[in-house]
Amino acid sequence: MRRSHVVGVKRIYVFSSIVISKRLLAFLVVASLLNLGLIYMILFSKISIPDLSIESIFVLVVGLYRILMLNYATTVAREVKSGEIQLYLAHTLRRLEYVVTTLIAIDLLPLVILLTPYLAFLGVIEPGLILRGETINLVPLLLVDFTICASIYTLVASRGRDTLLVVIGVVMALLSILITPLSISMVAYGRDISLTIGYLGSLITSILAPYAYSVAYNLYAHLPYPYQPLNPVFSTLPSPTIMSIISLTTSIFVLVATILWFKRRDV
Fold it and tell me: Would 2 be classed as within a structural domain?
């Protein structure tokens, strides 16, 4: 049993290398441009807007990375749609291993590429932030955010819906960049129907965009007087920690459903 697990891990590693290498150059070029933009925004904010937090800058970057994650997700969708996946499954690769490999390419690779230069950059200009653990707090929340996005992409990709996948990717990016901050703002200052829409939108985006929800929630919750939220209902919004746990649980359910459906599907 143990030997079979070791062999399975080796197959996942080998196939992950093959999948990642397919579009690695294009992925790295775009990711490098995004990371350079991130570094520029951090430097610019330190000079021009010292009160702007690194977490707020990451909201935009995370939204753009959600689109970048489509790079591998659409590749998997086209493999399933064209039947190319049969070539992999015919060479002892199990369906569970295929799903795990897909998740690695869509979720973990972008997260590592995002965080590595960022942490290296801060280690040079502000090592104290890393030593005090102030930036490490981003990592678990970003992992949860990337995982809910990747789990949805994996589910759609496993069905071979490449066009639908692109539409969902754009929506997921907008959830992070625009819809979540707007929903929180409507809860803080809205009235009547806008307050109701904002509250419902906040509940939905807190699961689908937990990082943006956490940043926007904490921003409004700690505003100084007289800019504090006008609506008492703002205090009834669920805490980002609770919603991150719910988001991660949702990701697990989506992945389990994907695996069960994919194992039964005749691809």
Answer: no
Cα–Cα distance, 255 to 259 (Å, whole number): 6
Number of domains in the chain: 1
Residue 178 is assigned to a structural domain of this protein:
yes
CB 155 within 8 A of CB 257: yes
At residue 28, φ and ψ (nearest 5 deg) are -65, -35
Q: Is residue 1 part of a domain?
A: no
CB hemisphere CA count around 96 (13 angstroms) = 5
pTM: 0.83
Cβ contact 111:146 at 8 Å = yes
Per-position DSSP letters for 109-173, written without gaps between them: HHHHHHHHHHHHHHHHH-HHHHHTTTTTTHHHHHHHHHHHHHHHHHHHHTTT-HHHHHHHHHHHH
Those residues whose C-beta lies under 8 Å from the C-beta of residue 189, and which sit 6 or more positions away, are 229, 230, 231
| Average pLDDT, integer, range 83-95 | 73
Torsion of CA 238, 242, 246, 247, to 10 degrees: 90
Q: How far apart are CA 171 and CA 176, in angstroms?
A: 9
| Contacts of residue 84, Cβ cutoff 8 Å, sequence gap at least 6 | 78
Q: Band the pLDDT of 28: cuts 50, 70, 90.
A: confident
Looking at the predicted structure, is the pLDDT value of residue 267 above 60? no
